[in-house]
Amino acid sequence: MRWDEGAGKLLLRAGQVLGAAWAAPMTLAGLLAGGVAMLRGAKASVSDGAIVFHHVPFGPGGALTLGNTILHTGGSLDAPALTYACRAHGGMDTVRLGDHERAHVYQYLVLGPLFLPLYFACGGISHRNRFEQAADRYAATGRGWWPFSGDR
Q1: CA-CA distance, 14 to 109, in Å (whole number)?
Q2: Average pLDDT score, the chain
Q3: Over the chain, what HEC string results?
Q4: Which of 11, 53, 67, 72 lies in the 20 to 30 Å Cα band around 41?
Q5: What is the pLDDT of residues 95-145, one digit of tens each?
Q6: Contact predicate 89/107, CB 8 Å
Q7: Exposed / middle / buried, residue 93 (Cβ in 10 Å: 0-12, 13-18, 19+)
Q8: What is the pTM of this model?
Q9: Range 36-69 burial, b when 16+ CB lie within 10 A, else e
Q10: How far is CA 95 from the centre of its chain?
């Protein structure tokens, strides 16, 4: 491995650690909710850059990312999920749910506790929300998880 490759990996890892610390208040909230869910039968694992709680017995269904935690009502993040645009306008485009949620993990690493206020300021749970558009884009292509890239 060349020095610049090693330095790049080191910088990436440092950024991930700093991002995880920045997102820690939301991760703690997710861990608390996941702990309550485990008392009611949920199971924990590590996947998609997060601690994932499967079979969460509360919530509207699907998945919710809080920092580096994902609360999932189903059994696997490998499940296909309709994109937000398809849910709103019809169609059959699906993405892997875990890839969609991983985009939100990345967004939290950058925005930390600012994520939720910005998410709701951008429209909340809606196909018009740039955070959801970016997460669907990332899940479909592996690129474009940042919600303010101008590629909407």
Answers
A1: 12
A2: 93
A3: CCHHHHHHHHHHHHHHHHHHHHCHHHHHHHHHHHHHHHHCCCEEEEECCEEEEECCCCCCCCEEEECCEEEECCCCCCCEEECHHHHHHCCCCEEEHHHHHHHHHHHHHHHHHHHHHHHHHCCCCCCCCHHHHHHHHHHHHCCCCCCCCCCC
A4: 67
A5: 999 999 999 999 999 999 999 999 999 999 999 999 999 999 999 999 999
A6: no
A7: middle
A8: 0.92
A9: ebeeeebeeeebbbbbbbbebeeeeebbbbbbbb
A10: 13
Which two three-digit tokens encode residue 129?
A: 């929300």
C-alpha to C-alpha distance for 110 and 68, rounded to whole angstroms: 12
Would you give the distance in Å from CA 150 to the centre of its chain? 20
Tokens encoding 35: 């702990």
pLDDT tens-digit map of 2-43: 656 778 788 888 989 999 999 999 999 999 999 999 999 999
Q: Which residue has the tokens 């690129």?
A: 143
φ, ψ dihedrals at 82, nearest 5°: -60, 145
Nearest-angstrom CA–CA distance, 96 and 55: 17
Average pLDDT score over residue span 143-152? 84
Task: Please identify which residue in the block is written with the tokens 């970016």.
Answer: 134
